[in-house]
Amino acid sequence: MKKLITIQSRAIPLPAENIDTDQIIPARFLKSIDRKGFGNNLFRDWRFNVHTGEPNPEFVLNKPEFTGEILVAGNNFGCGSSREHAAWALTDYGFKVIVSSYFADIFKGNALNNGLLPVKVSEDFLKVILEGITNDPQLEIRVDVEQQSVTFNGKTENFELDSYKKICLLNGYDDIDFLISRKKAIQEFELKTQKIYE
Amino acid sequence: MNNNRKTLFDKVWDAHVVETVPDGPQIIYIDKHLIHEVTSPQAFAELEARNLKVFRPEQIVATADHNVPTQHQELPIRDELSRNQVEQLTENCVKNGIELFGLGHPYQGIVHIIAPELGITQPGMSIVCGDSHTSTHGAFGAIAFGIGTSQVAQVFASQCLLLNKPKSMRITVNGTLNKDVQPKDVILYIISKVGTDGGTGFFCEYAGDVFENMSMEGRMTVCNMSIEMGARGGMIAPDAVTFDYVKGRAFAPEGEDWEEKVAYWKTLKTDEGAVFDAEFTFDASEIQPMVTYGTNPGMGISVHESIPAPRNESEAKALQYMGLQAGQSMSDIRVNYVFIGSCTNARIEDFRSVAEYIKGKSRSGHVHALIVPGSQQVVKQMYEEGLDAVFREAGFEIRQPGCSACLAMNDDKIPEGEYCVSTSNRNFEGRQGQGARTILASPLTAAKVAVEGKISILQHLN
User: Which of A20, A125, B116, B332 could form a disulfide with B121 if both were Cys (CB 3.0 to 4.6 A apart)?
Assistant: First the structure.
């Protein structure tokens, strides 16, 4: 996993609420057996005309004035399926941070396991950011993982981040490394609880 | 103080804590890991890239369900990408010594249907799968939840996950259910009240006499949709109904082992006075047959109600997608498709209730009615009980087991703009096919719609 320490970037506003994983990456694109290439179909059915496959000029990712590595989305982002392909599609497209006022549980975990940082802000601050970047797409957002802070247009808010996950992000570690290092304790637990299936 | 009083969830969770990382998550031991063809290949690849072996292959069970055709399963899969995924699963299972109930196997089926019906799912277990509807298995008093592919790889490597303990919620429904109200209506009602994010961060226990009096199939339907209110999982305390269901199944404990297990399972209930972080209480008599009218499962109303005014832009957008207007009656909708299947409602009991209603009736001429059984075992039972003849005589089409039109990964798609009354779990935009409009309902309501061609209000008013 790549390290994520600070990021300062322009951002893309997507104010819709309850954006589910079927919108982020529709099921028909889950047939791949590797992790690459999902960015091409990120928000597929909003981003492209269903019939012609042409980019939909109304959709924010197709508006040239909006760019950046931060996506700012409406409440309850990432609800629905557990498909990690949603996180892969977002990172493959180039996003490093998602800002919203609420994230669905499984998506949040999947994002963190891929070095994609979900930043939960207050509903008021989300509104300020969404309006701000919509009116002036040049404005930038700064996210500092160490400080757990997000700054926009002179305003700063702190966000929650599990201390363990913070160490992972700052150092580029992931859970497998950690779990493997605890193999002895796991085997002792199996013996203690007689969970030996061998 | 109620410090020593534990919830059902506490008891099962605490029994699986290997250790607690200081100022961090807990290492949770996983008893059973279910895998399928769509969310596992990248996890196997991850393990190979790190030169790691699957730690406990005996605790993993695999099946092919998400991406399989529901016709001609005996022939090679036509779609190259789908075939590749299914072949990859087989290869990975053979290589790693994992039991696979693949296409053609008498135990094949939707992962959340087969594990309970084979007795793999048992009370007190921790169960995970790379699928959000893993919450289904909570019906047995297990802690069961969906995980992402990185976590699938973690379980492969260590049989454990790093998790923070979720908050606890209890939803109590007491009273007697009205006529024609099925477990699906109960959970759609709950989600419409709690909202699609009301359960986020929580693990939910369902309590009260409505659930106590429910069959295991019904409990599974309820727990299955816990994720649709954001809860990671749902669970119901195991009781005599649970033990009777598990007993004698292919992978159920036997003899002395059975007696020991049941003695332990009987301790798995919330202590009186245990405190939950959140509680909801509903009255069973308030619940009517439910349908959804929007693009998330929280947008549900009883069949008697007309479509409410949108409360925000997202709901307005949902109505626009659905081609519906506030104030409109659901009976105005011409329904051309009915889908009875999915991990929510493709068990034998679901098909029995459908068959009981449609016996001697016919589908409406313009309705395509699709029956997709949840597993080969369900198919066998359907045929043994003669339900297949009832469906065929009524003009319903019976397919082979798989996830099918619930997520439309295979060829089973609903055409653009068409309404489908579906017993599945999600009515998201495009879920059943690009532009398809999903109306979630119970198997009985779906059967009625198939016969009448529309959502009939009068029928339900009796």
Answer: B116
